[in-house]
Amino acid sequence: MQATRRNFTFGAMAALLSGCGMGASGGFSAPVRRADAAMPSVPNAGWDAWVASFKGRAAAQGISPAVIESAFRGAGFLPGVIERDRNQTEFKRSLEDYLSIAASDERVAKGRSYFAQQRSTLARIEQRYGVEAHVVAAIWGLESFYGERRGSIPIVSSTSTLAYEGRRGAFFEKQLIAALQILQNGDTTPANMTGSWAGAMGHTQFIPTSYELFAVDFTGDGRRDIWSDDPTDALASTAAYLAKSGWQRGQSWGGVVGTPGANVPGGRQLQPEVGGPVFVVGRNFDAIKRYNNSDSYAIGVGHLSDRILGGGPIEGPFPPDQYGLRKDDRIALQRRLTAAGFDTQGADGVIGPNTRSAISAYQGRMGLPVTGEPSQALLSRLG
User: Fold this and answer.
1) Is the confidence at residue 9, as pLDDT, over 50?
2) Beta bridge partner(s), residue 270
3) Which domain covers residue 366, as residue numbers?
């Protein structure tokens, strides 16, 4: 994400933690939160020594001893964070698969519901920052599934673990310093400062340095609280980010050539995949990419924002995947596997871990080579 915000893969979704309540904007039902898998801290002498050294560097940058001690009182070394960092997949999804996830039926339905629920708040945010409400809602949807997947890993523990590990040590030490500055400003507490394993926080997944640059106190309570069940400050902070990134009010992000959204002043054509749809995109597409420097992400946000307003799916053509299968083929494969007793946990046309496990189980049962990979031959065999 260019200079201020790293790309932490929107699909790295955490699991369920319940939450309920009323926010400062009043009257809404808080999202049901999904909790991360347990990630316990373990004793580590090297981390302890690193922290002791780091405390001096933090103090030299103006962090008070009291804040430093409070922040590290419950912190620890998280080997699970190192494992996640080292095992990030290099697999690149096709745009069709990406959009199937980014604008899934569930994400669209929830988006319309939350958009209606937050309409008044989003309208006030749009009035102040000039960023259309449905676009802010779409980023909320992609980043944390509308607040349901904010992450529950302590940020001081995760960023100090990654800074100590050293692969991107300078970057994560900078994030840790920023996290301590946030605590020193009184925006939240160490216990409440939680997020993803890589340090992204709150409803719209700000890393600490981006938070310092763009977060706002829209509710007027004296804190820029992106962690609360109330998403107001987080949504406003996202709008502020886009506004400062060049967002042009009243302009479309873009759209497929020949559709109304493609009427973008000064727009340019973009074809992410050979044989796939051609888009016309403009300055607002570029502003979304400042939030996450990925064409697929920016198209995903734009498309989800259109769907939230009632728009329909993008109608291909999309090229077949590496196995020669189109989306309809993949959906048929998932349905046939499930009907045969090898449950793929849904039929969305995305070949993920559940589908691959089902394929492997079927291949093993039939005495076939176990590859876990789809194919036309497998589809025909199941027919």
Assistant:
1) no
2) 279
3) 327-382
Q: Which residues contact 378 (CB under 8 A, 6 or more apart)?
A: 333, 359, 362
Instruction: Report the distance separating Cα 254 and Cα 122, nearest Å.
Output: 21
CA nearest 20: which of 204, 229, 194, 226?
A: 229
DSSP assignment of 141-171: HHHHTTTTT---EEHHHHHHHHHHH-TTHHH
CA distance 307 to 103: 8
User: What secondary structure does DSSP assign to 185-217, as a single string?
Assistant: HTSS-TTT-EE-TTS-BTTTTB-HHHHHHH---
Give me the number of domains the chain comprises. 1
Instruction: Output 32 or 359, whichever has higher pLDDT.
Output: 359
Q: Which of 31-35, 42-46, 119-123, 336-340 has the lowest mean pLDDT?
A: 31-35
pLDDT value at residue 316: 77
pLDDT of the residue at 13: 33
Average pLDDT over residues 283-303: 97
| Cis peptide, bond prior to residue 317, ω within 30 of zero | yes
- Within a domain: residue 375? yes
d(CA 228, CA 185): 17
Output the DSSP codes for 355-372.
Answer: HHHHHHHHHHHHT-----
Q: What is the pLDDT of residue 7?
A: 43
Q: Is residue 2 one of the residues assigned to a domain?
A: no
Tell whether 366 is covered by a domain: yes
- φ, ψ at 47 (rounded to 5°): -65, -40
Cα(118)–Cα(103) distance, integer angstroms: 19
Give the integer Cα–Cα distance in Å for 1 and 52: 31
Q: What is the pLDDT of residues 218-251, one digit of tens each?
A: 999 999 999 999 999 999 999 999 999 999 999 9
- Burial code of 269-296, b = ≥16 C-beta within 10 A, e = fewer? ebeeeeebbebbbbbbbbbbbbbbebbb
